[in-house]
Each structure stands twice: as structure tokens, then as C-alpha cells.
Design a protein that fits this description.
The protein is of the alpha/beta class and 259 residues long. It has a domain of 180 residues: Decaprenyl diphosphate synthase-like (Undecaprenyl pyrophosphate synthetase, 3-Layer(aba) Sandwich). It is 51% helix and 13% strand. The protein contains 11 helices and 6 strands. Strands 3-4-2-1-5-6 form a 6-stranded parallel beta sheet, sandwiched between helices. Helix 7 links the parallel strand 3 and strand 4. Helix 1 packs parallel to helix 11 and helix 2 packs across helix 3.
């Protein structure tokens, strides 16, 4: 016999989700959504699985998320899959399977032919095999006319800003610009043009799952004017209804740029 929860999921949630989608104002849909896929390890512990199974469950939830984004008209999604701190803080026996899962997830997204993959992060910090696979996914989807998917692997917000400034300095040094001349002209647009996400709109909405209410270094520069939505669901349990609630909450907000 079906439980009350099963009935709610099969009958009431679809009707509720349909109503939410129908009532979303087309002119208040975020163009760029950043997602912090948090809670995989806690999910694994809660269900009695090992850590790798938790990461795999999280990876399996990425494709549905991208479908939901397409459904409402999002144009860019940034997925934080692995921080630069994780590369140094996680034990090797935990990091190695996580990297394999990330490689497989990104390859699967590329093979679908639906989305344009763009790795963001310090790829030089990653194992060569991982970096090569991420670059291959980007190259394979370069001409795909679909949702732009930034996969943040080995990513840290402070590192990104440092890399942007370094790139800016190197560019002007190659042009013979002196430090004094550069100091006179440098502004926020110059730095923004050297970020990992250069040429893309800044995120309108940043979603973090698992109940944590902090950025942890995610898109530090780009999120200055973003709206934030914190969801209690652990990432592998994040559902379409949770996503739609985040989009609805964003649409209902009055954005105050600059303050």
C-alpha cells in the first residue's frame, strides 16, 4: 500500500510544480544561476552509503537540474563540483574516486550534445588526466547552441581573482605597458575581462543546498549583486520542486543593485 508521502510525490507535487511554472513571470527569470552542490557526504552517511556513493548520487542529479534550468529559460549555469581547498584537504583515498566521478559526469554531459561545457577553475592544480578530460569536454561541445554549463573544478574565488590580476599584468607586460601606466587605467572591467567566466553575465541567483548559509568562496567577484537562496535539502535529494521554489523566490524579490 502506497504511503501518504508517495501519494503526495506522485499526485500533488506535479500539480503544484505545474502551477509554479505557469505563474513564473517570463521577465524575471535569472539568466545565470550558480549552484553549490553541497551535502553529498552527509547524504551518504544518512542512508548508510559510502562517500563515493554519495558523490555519485550527487553527480546523477546534475542532468535533471540542467533540464529544469532549460525548462524555465536559464541561459548559464555554474556548478561548483570541487573547490581548490578540497584538492589539498581531502585524503587521497577520498579525492581519487571523486575526481573519477567528476570526470564521468562531465563526459556524460558532453556526450549528450545538449549543453556547452566550460571548465572554470585552476586546471593546473588538477591531475593531468582530469584536466585533459575537462578540456576535451569543452572542445567537444564548443559549437553546441544550448545552455552554457560552467563546471567549477579546482575552483576557489580568491584564486580566480588572483589569476585574473596575474593574467592582466602579463597581458600588459607583453604590450610594454609600465606599472605606472597600468595603475592609471586599471578598473573593475579590466579585471572582470580576465575572470574564468569572462564574457558571461554575472550570476543573478546563487543556490546552496544542505542548509549551509555561506558562500565559501564561490564566485566571489561575480556574485556581488546576486540574490541567494539557501535550501535545506542535501544535494542528492534536491528536486524539481526545490528548484522551482528557488526560481519563484528570486522572481518575487525586488533587486537593489548597488546596495
Amino acid at each position: 500500500m502506497a504511503s501518504v508521502k508517495d501519494v503526495v510525490r506522485r499526485v500533488l507535487y506535479p500539480a503544484y510544480e505545474f502551477r509554479v511554472v505557469k505563474n513564473l513571470p517570463a521577465d524575471r527569470i535569472p539568466k545565470h544561476v550558480g549552484v553549490m552542490l553541497d551535502g553529498n557526504r552527509r547524504w551518504a552517511k544518512a542512508v548508510g552509503a559510502d562517500t563515493a556513493q554519495g558523490y555519485q548520487a550527487g553527480a546523477d542529479n546534475i542532468r535533471p537540474l540542467l533540464g529544469w534550468c532549460e525548462e524555465v529559460g536559464v541561459e548559464v549555469v555554474t556548478l561548483w563540483l570541487l573547490s581548490s581547498d578540497n584538492l589539498t584537504n581531502r585524503p587521497p583515498e577520498q579525492l581519487a574516486p571523486l575526481l573519477r566521478i567528476i570526470e564521468g559526469a562531465v563526459a556524460s554531459l558532453a556526450e549528450s550534445g545538449r549543453w556547452r561545457i566550460h571548465p572554470v577553475g585552476a586546471l593546473d592544480l588538477l591531475p593531468p588526466e582530469t584536466a585533459t578530460r575537462l578540456k576535451a569536454a569543452e572542445e567537444a561541445t564548443r559549437d553546441v547552441d544550448g545552455l552554457m554549463v560552467n563546471v567549477a573544478v579546482g575552483y576557489g574565488g580568491r584564486r580566480e581573482i588572483a589569476d585574473a590580476v596575474r593574467s592582466l599584468l602579463q597581458e600588459h607586460a607583453s604590450q610594454g605597458t609600465s606599472l605606472e601606466e597600468l595603475a592609471e587605467i586599471i578598473d573593475v572591467e579590466h579585471i572582470a575581462a580576465h575572470l574564468y567566466t569572462k564574457g558571461q553575465p554575472d550570476p543573478d541567483l546563487v543556490i546552496r543546498t544542505s542548509g549551509e548559509q555561506r558562500l565559501g568562496g564561490f564566485l566571489l567577484w561575480q556574485s556581488a549583486q546576486s540574490e541567494f537562496y539557501f535550501c535545506e535539502a542535501l544535494w542528492p535529494d534536491f528536486r524539481r520542486v526545490d528548484f522551482l521554489r528557488a526560481i519563484r523566490a528570486y522572481a518575487a524579490r525586488e533587486r537593489r543593485f548597488g546596495g
